[in-house]
Amino acid sequence: MGKGLSLWFACSSILILTAASIAISYSFWLALLLGFLCVMNIGWGFILKARIRRKQESLSSD
Predict the structure, then answer these.
(1) Which of 3, 15, 34, 56 has the highest CB neighbour count under 10 A?
(2) Domains: count for the chain
(3) Are the C-beta atoms of 42 and 13 separated by less than 8 Å?
(4) Spatial contact of 12 and 41, defined as CB atoms under 8 Å apart
């Protein structure tokens, strides 16, 4: 995964977690939703990284 894409996932996760921490004082359910969204964002980053690595490995083995 490139540096730009890694930076995107890191910054977006930080922003979502910041919004979740602010939302705690307003609504428990909103904070829970944002926390779940952050976990999904991080998971999507790992999935994308694995797919890119697998594609690069298959191209280099040919």
Answers:
(1) 34
(2) 1
(3) yes
(4) yes
**Helices within the chain (DSSP H only):** 3-23, 28-61
State pTM to two decimals.
0.82
Sequence letter at residue 6: S
For residues 34 and 20, the answer to whether their CB atoms sit within 8 Å is yes
Q: For residue 30, what are the CA distances in angstroms to 8, 10, 17, 56?
A: 23, 21, 12, 39
State the residue range of the domain holding 46.
3-59
Enumerate residue ranges in the chain where pLDDT < 50: none
What one-letter code names the amino acid at 8? Answer: W
